[in-house]
Structure formats: C-alpha cells, structure tokens
Amino acid sequence: MLLRVRVTLPDRPGTLGQVARTLGVSGADIVQVVVLERLGGRAVDDFTVVWPGAARVERLMAGLAAIPGVRVDGVWRAIGAPTTTGQDAELLAQIAANPADGVATLVDAVPGLLAADWAAAAVVPLDWASRSGGSASVAHASWRAPQPPVLPEVTPLRARTVTAADGTHYALAPFGRAGLVLVVAREYGEPLTAAAFHSIEVDRLAQLVRAGAVILGDRLDLVDAPPVTNVT
Q: Is there a contact between 81 and 31 (Cβ–Cβ < 8 Å)?
C-alpha cells in the first residue's frame, strides 16, 4: 500500500539521508519526496512510500523518531503520489470544458491532489455555527465520503484548517458566493495518524477554489442540496 509520511527535520546536510535510510531499513520503498517548508533551520518533508501491508507501521514511526531532531508529524494512507501544480491547471481546464459538472469534478479530484480521504462541496448558512441560520447541505461528495458526510461546524470567510474532536483534520475554502464551501478531510485511524493540512496545502486548495469560482461564475448560485444534520 501507499503511505504518506510527513516529518519535520533539521535542515542540515545528512539528516535527509538518515531519514531515507531509516525508511529503507524499515521496509519502505520511497516513491517521491516533496519539501513543504524550509524555515528557521527546519524543514517539513512529505515522503510517499510503498509499504508492505504485513509490516507494522509502529516500527517505521519508532525508527524515524529515534533520529536526533526528527519529529514524525503523521503517517497515513495515500491515494497516489503527490501531484504537481501543472495538474491543477489540467483540472481547471476540465472544469472549463464541462462547467455543468464543474463542482463535482473539483470535489472528486481534490482528495487525490491533497492526500486526503474525501471531499465535499457544502452550502453553509452564514451564521451556521450559531444554529440560527438553518442547516448545511451537501451539493456533491467524493466517493469515499461517509454518508452523509460529517462536516465541521465552521463558516469560513477564508481558507483555513480545523481539527475535530475525533482527530479528523479538515481544510476548508469558500467559493465566495452562494455560501458554498469546499471541505476536504483526512480521517484519524490507529495505528496510522494523518497530519494536519499544511499551510502550503491550504493555499493550494484556496487557489483551486478561487479559480473554479471564476470559471463557474453564476452557476455556483444554482448549487443546492438536501440539508445535513450531523456535524462535528
């Protein structure tokens, strides 16, 4: 199976090699490495690895944590290797070519782009969190989403992250009209522990949503769906 492994490590020569060797010794075959952040002498790296299903993930996590200065931020299942921003342009081109299904196309693609479990486009009342604005509704959910999707009780005015009480991590980005919000989730599950969405990932989501909103324009005002009552 594919795993995403996120580590924070000292940004100095040799440390990345130690992490790579530890992954190899533990039985992981590295597919790709993406640097999310380099700041203040520290780096945040995402490794996508092929992991033998019978092996214990705890061994991998313990080996990485034993490297001086290294912190394991998360290990979770991945749908595929990290995608590039060039693929974001391809996605937006697909939306432009078929705007009638634009929201569904974006929702279905985002989990793969951000190594998430599922996504949903939700119509959220402005004062939903106060319970005086009615119920949220789901316009479209990706195929791995729970039925009905469990939504965080947040009305974001800008892209942001939320972690629910059960450990599920959410990234949310508003389309800027019609109360429509794109919700992306990474679910918690032992022994795997998904990392929270990094600011780079949230920015990427926000850019996709803004571009999608420009392409779809007034079509977003027509998005609606039955209400959802289960929120976190």
A: yes
Q: Angle at CA 102, nearest 5°, toward 110 and 148?
A: 60
Token duo for residue 87: 């693929």
Residue type present at position 105:
T
Cis peptide preceding 82, ω within 30 of 0: no
Write the CA distances from 79 to 29, 76, 133, 150, integer angstroms.
16, 10, 36, 20
Q: Which amino acid is at 35?
A: V
HSE (side-chain half, CA atoms, 13 Å) at 198 = 19
- 194-207 residue pLDDT tens: 899 999 999 999 99
Residues 108-151: pLDDT tens digits? 999 988 989 999 998 876 554 544 445 678 889 998 898 888 88
Q: In what side-by-side order are the strands of the sheet with 136-141?
A: 160-163, 169-174, 180-186, 118-123, 136-141, 227-228
Counting the structural domains of the chain, the total is 2
The reported pTM is 0.85
81: DSSP letter:
S
Task: List the CATH number of the domain containing 42.
Answer: 3.30.70.260
Tell me the residue range of the domain where 152 lies: 85-228
CA 96 to chain centre: 23
Q: In degrees rounded to 5, what are phi and psi of residue 30?
A: -70, 125
Do 1 and 77 contact (CB within 8 A), yes or no? yes
